[in-house]
Automatic annotation (TrEMBL):
Keyword hit for Transferase: no
Cofactor(s) this protein requires: pyridoxal 5'-phosphate
Keyword set, alphabetical order: Lyase, Pyridoxal phosphate
Transmembrane domains' residue ranges: none
Pfam families for the chain: Cys_Met_Meta_PP
MF-aspect GO terms: cysteine-S-conjugate beta-lyase activity; pyridoxal phosphate binding
Enzyme class at the top of the EC tree: lyase
Native organism: Acidovorax soli
Family membership: Belongs to the trans-sulfuration enzymes family.
SUPFAM superfamilies: PLP-dependent transferases
Name under which the protein is recorded: Cystathionine beta-lyase
Residue numbers bearing the N6-(pyridoxal phosphate)lysine modification: 221
Reaction(s) catalysed by this chain's protein: L,L-cystathionine + H2O = L-homocysteine + pyruvate + NH4(+)
Length: 410
């Protein structure tokens, strides 16, 4: 089994302290705990913020940086604790919490979209983000262009470009993109890059160090880690976040204090969970490569993956989700494989403690009642179970596809 990776150094915002990342995760976001004589910051639920004086009430409405109580919709101290902790962890000035990862993506895209403008989107990003671009933004006369490389980004670029949106690696297909090169090109033209950084988390992927202006995380997944809350986070400088923050204020976007408290609690163990996900995912992925029922494993952390060299340059680890292509099989055999899995739940999320399996169906094939026998993709999320048990479970399920039994699990 692959050794656990050395946790990455802290982003620049907290390098002034002698703290290791794990220490920071234990102590960030606890400013209000002292007054409550508590280890954890208090859970503050409020629809109304009450001010002791008129002067303080007026001061709360000066400026556009909402990091102190103003009104329940803009947050309580519980939300501010989570936002401050995430901003420091990511080496950013500020952070915005939103109701979900998709809400965070929608806020960033919506804040930058304009009639006559151009948003350049990486091919293969999260499916609902593509639907949002095609069915909401494009009808509003915002031009949407999809690119698959830095070269195609240059070719599609126009003077109306207002945002570049990427995801590394790409959803389902796990393709790597040179985020640093994209950011450098866009910055030279004064256009921000937004990145869905959920897969790598701040521990394995330092988005802002690569020049990414807006880093988006579905905290639903690894940041929380317990599959019991839905929440999104966007980090960046005050300037980079200004239009997104204003968009959220206009749209009435709000996240509950309870959700923030759960995510802040889950964040405490991120430094322990991520190396375990990394090691187990590598072990299971390597085992799957040797199985006759597997055509290929799409996982940039594997040396055989075409994006491996780029992954090594821009990531310090790899978490649990990756995709496999099965050997050609019938729909009945595929269904038998999925249904035979005992330790992998059939679900569409990932990032929790449990392992999951999901058919990874390309958008152009989703309307078909029966999928083609060849090129059938499955996304696996490797949870915190023992990898040997997961491999045994997969081996028993793969037997339904045929091609003989593979070697024993590690």
């Amino acid at each position: 089994m692959t050794d656990h990776p050395t946790p990455p150094s802290l982003p620049h915002a907290v390098r002034s302290t002698p703290w290791h990342t794990d220490t920071a995760l234990a102590h960030l976001g606890r400013t209000s705990a002292t007054a409550a004589l508590s280890v954890n910051p208090p859970l503050v639920r409020a629809s109304t913020t009450v001010f002791p004086t008129l002067a303080e009430f007026k001061d709360s409405y000066r400026g556009t940086v909402f990091e102190a109580p103003r009104y329940g919709r803009s947050g309580t101290s519980t939300q501010f604790e989570l936002q401050a902790a995430m901003a420091q962890l990511c080496g950013a000035q500020s952070c915005i919490a939103l109701p979900s990862g998709l809400a965070a993506i929608a806020a960033v895209l919506g804040a930058h979209a304009r009639p006559g403008g151009q948003i350049l989107v990486q091919e293969g990003v999260y499916g609902p983000a593509q639907v949002l671009c095609d069915q909401v933004l494009a009808p509003l006369q915002c031009r949407i262009d999809y690119f698959d490389s830095v070269d195609s980004l240059r070719e599609l670029w126009t003077d109306q470009a207002c945002l570049v949106f990427i995801e590394v690696p790409s959803s389902l297909t796990m393709r790597m993109l040179d985020a640093a090169a994209v950011s450098e090109f866009a910055a030279s033209r004064g256009v921000p890059v937004a990145c869905d950084s959920t897969w790598g988390t701040p521990l394995f992927f330092d988005a802002h160090a690569l020049g990414i202006a807006l880093s988006i995380h579905a905290a639903t997944k690894y940041i929380n880690g317990h599959s019991d809350v839905v929440l999104g986070l966007v980090t960046g400088s005050y300037e980079a976040l200004a239009s997104t923050r204003a968009w959220c204020d206009r749209q009435g976007s709000h996240v509950s204090a309870d959700a923030c408290a759960l995510v802040l609690r889950g964040m405490r163990t991120l430094g322990l969970r991520m190396p375990r996900h990394h090691a187990s995912a590598l072990a299971v992925a390597a085992w799957l490569q040797a199985q006759p029922q597997i055509e290929r494993v799409l996982f940039p952390a594997l040396p055989s993956d075409p994006g491996h060299a780029l992954w090594r340059r821009q990531f310090s680890g790899a978490p649990g989700p990756f995709t496999v292509e099965l050997a050609p099989c019938s729909e009945a055999a595929f269904e038998a494989f999925i249904n035979a899995l005992q330790l992998f739940g059939l679900g569409t999320s990932w990032g929790g403690f449990e392992s999951l399996v999901m058919p990874a169906i390309a958008h152009h094939l989703r309307a078909l009642p029966v999928q083609p026998d060849a090129g059938r993709l499955v996304r696996l999320h490797i949870g915190l179970e023992a990898p040997g048990d997961l491999c045994d479970d997969l081996a028993a399920a793969l037997a339904h596809i045929g091609h003989g039994a593979g070697p024993s699990s590690p």
